[in-house]
Amino acid sequence: MATAEVRAAAARASAAQSAEVRSTERGCVQSGAEDELPLRVAVIIGSTREGREGAGVAAWFTALARKRHGLALDVVDLADFHFPERLLAQPPPGIAEFTERLGAAEAFIVITPEYNRSFPASLKQAIDYGYDEWHAKPVGFVSYGSNSVGMHAVEQLRWVFTELHTVTVRDSVSFDLLRAHDPDGTGRSATAMLGQLAWWGHALRDARAARPYCA
After folding, report:
1. N or C: which end of the chain has fewer CB within 10 A?
2. CATH number for the domain including 191?
């Protein structure tokens, strides 16, 4: 058994090294000029329920993301805002602050639970208060739930954000609340997603500077 475990570990290490070599050959390693402005990333906590898991998930994710060079994080907790029940022609001051923070961001991470095979109403309401603020920016997802690990919510959010002229990145991070957390697995997923988000964030920032996006 010990020999089999050693062989398995060696195989994993070899596969990881091969993947790193392929990434280096493609130029996919984390890079960027030291004097390049950090990418401004809004991390949106989508649940406002009492007893939610979202705050803990956000704390884990932001601690990992802050280890990556070149990202400036702004944690936007929807529980800190009082969204009106109706969409008003003139939103209250707190909502103006929310949309200003969306507008200042150059990329987004949306942390969402899955409720009844979808994402929470609080998140949809918040999303709809922005429009131009979302345009031509990348979006990544961190989801949590039981069994489906929030993927039903993420797939529906991809449709919503497509309508808002964003680019949703391929990889995502997911947590199964009924199982023990696998930090290695979620860590690898987060690293892949952040790499994609950073690439699109810088590319779209340059593109918006060269030519304003017109929807």
Report:
1. N
2. 3.40.50.360
